[in-house]
Amino acid sequence: SLVPVITIDGPTASGKGTLASTVAQALGYHTLDSGSLYRVTALAALNRGVDTTDGEAMAALARGLNLRFEGERLWLDGQDVSHELRREEVGSTASRISALGELRAALYAVQLAFRRAPGLVADGRDMGTVIFPDAPLKVFLTASPAMRAERRYKQLISKGISASIDELRADLEARDERDRNRLIAPLKPAQDALLLDNSAQTVQASTGIVLQWWAQRG
Ligand code: C5P
């Protein structure tokens, strides 16, 4: 039978990555941070001077990327770029290129390949709607913009990257707007997704809820 998948979709900095990690750890499953694929494609384009508005060029670039995933770390051309991927310039470029249909199509097979036994927890924007529509559990994770801006701020500061909380909030709201309004794979809950608002929730509490949903899945 098919390898089980839990999808966690939601807006920027809603805590998807953290929740995906804790749930995967509890179940002994693999993880897919799909945003990192858009980010690493953005980084490669910036480094090589590829036109980030050219869908065909971006798709070709994505298909030729030399990537290696090691747990939560990502290597591009033999270099650990995990830290660089968090740069704001990389994130905003990733947000813009993610509207390109050719690029999304090129990354489709890459994402399916992460579905390996004993299971996968995949986080992003379209995991439940487009990439793994047959997933037995789909979570749509939200949190208030203020909370998300604060979390992203702390995340960046803890990595030694300076930031302004007001700019971060404006930027994440602009990204969400773009993700929700694009024509291809827009950010929205799958019809059968369960909604989880973690604004006032600890990571442990959210993890507990998802594990309970998983245990009770139909
Ligand atoms: O989640 P993260 O911020 O790392 O994603 C970077 C960008 O990639 C997002 O702003 C979003 O536009 C895009 N993305 C997407 N589909 C996904 C994951 C991320 O369009 N499944």
Layout of helices and strands:
Blueprint: E1 5-9, H1 16-27, E2 30-33, H2 34-48, H3 55-63, E3 67-70, E4 73-76, E5 79-80, H4 88-97, H5 101-112, E6 120-124, H6 127-131, E7 137-142, H7 145-158, H8 165-181, E8 194-197, H9 203-215
The structure holds cytidine-5'-monophosphate.
Cytidine-5'-monophosphate binds at residues 12, 34-35, 38-39, 91, 94-95, 98, 124-126, 175, 179.
Largest sheet: 5 strands, parallel
Derived from helix and strand composition plus strand pairing, the structural class reads alpha/beta
Helix content: 40-55%
Order of helices and strands: EHEHHEEEHHEHEHHEH
The named CATH superfamily: P-loop containing nucleotide triphosphate hydrolases
Amount of beta strand: 15-25%
Query: How far apart, in Å, are the first and last alpha carbons?
Result: 16 Å
CATH class: Alpha Beta
**What's the number of domains?**
1
> How confident is the prediction overall: mean pLDDT?
95
Strand order of the largest sheet: 2-6-1-7-8
**Low-confidence blocks of residues:** none
The number of strands is: 8
The shape is globular
Radius of gyration: 16 Å
What is the count of DSSP helices, taking H or I runs of 4+ residues? Answer: 9
